[in-house]
Automatic annotation (TrEMBL):
Species per Swiss-Prot/TrEMBL record: Nocardioides bigeumensis
Domain of life assignment: Bacteria
Annotated localization: Cell membrane
InterPro entries: AAA+_ATPase, ABC_transporter-like_ATP-bd, ABC_transporter-like_CS, ABC_transpr_CbiO/EcfA_su, Co_trans_ATP-bd, ECF_ABC_transporter_ATP-bd, P-loop_NTPase
Name assigned to this protein: ABC transporter ATP-binding protein
């Protein structure tokens, strides 16, 4: 079965010569929810920017459902891989929630009733349909993050990539977003420092450190491997022990 995301031997150096990735392999299959963990400077963001063609591989390859990521397929790749950035204000820039969510599909040529349906379906999925005509800057931070997710869902992506989705959220907003992400029928790759959130949402975790994959397995196994955690500067919050968490089926 072809992985939805297939990264093979990916290496990348920035123009200043800094080598960020050294031969990364990553395979994510349809319907998986995978956490991408690692210390600051590990290369996580660099890897994510290759998944929809913002950066181009120096060596190795990236493909999405068998389609190589490259200039000739960029439009379709960016439909298939939706990236939700850490700051929702990077994605919300129009006068109303409805306009922001419509922006992506409209650029793909979706019009009229189909566009309206896409917008409202995406807003329904994140519990924000009642806010369609509100200006985004009048919403709370948590609401803006949910609208940012909707702007990507309206593109009907195959993969949802989330960069630090729980950052700056209050506990209620954090839980609401977790419920939304669990309900979506889409493959998820979640970049996060929030290890309890990774345990809650992602059955599988991949650890990136110094530009290479150093672990790939069940999130519980990764978070309870004390030697691995210490070696790669991964720290659980004070008082949080994965061994005592009651885990529900995903």
């Amino acid at each position: 079965m072809t992985p939805v995301l297939d990264v093979q031997g990916l290496a990348y150096a920035y123009p200043d010569g800094h080598q960020a990735l050294f031969g990364v392999d990553l395979h994510v299959h349809q319907g998986e929810r995978v956490a991408l963990l690692g210390p600051n400077g590990a290369g996580k963001t660099t890897l994510v920017l290759h998944l929809n063609g913002i950066l181009t591989a120096g060596a190795g390859s990236v493909s999405v459902s068998g389609l190589p990521v490259g200039k000739e397929h960029l439009r379709e790749i960016r439909r298939r891989v939706g990236v939700v950035f850490q700051d929702p204000d990077d994605q919300l820039f129009l006068g109303s929630v409805r306009q922001d969510v419509a922006f992506g599909p409209a650029n793909l040529g979706v019009r009229g009733a189909e566009l309206d349906a896409r917008v409202m379906t995406a807003l329904d999925q994140v519990g924000m349909a009642d806010y369609a005509d509100r200006p985004p800057h009048h919403l709370s931070f948590g609401q803006r993050r949910r609208v940012a997710v909707a702007t990507v869902l309206a593109m009907q992506p195959e993969v949802l990539v989330l960069d630090e989705p729980s950052s700056n959220l209050d506990p209620a907003s954090r839980r609401e977003l977790a419920d939304i992400l669990r309900s979506l029928d889409v493959t998820v790759l979640m970049v996060t420092h929030d290890l309890p959130y990774a345990l809650e949402l992602c059955p599988r975790s991949v650890v990136l450190s110094d530009g290479v994959v150093v672990a790939d397995g069940a999130t519980y196994d990764v978070l309870t491997d004390d030697t691995l955690m210490a070696a790669h500067r991964l720290e659980l919050p004070f008082g949080f022990d994965p061994r005592t968490v009651v885990r529900t089926p995903h």
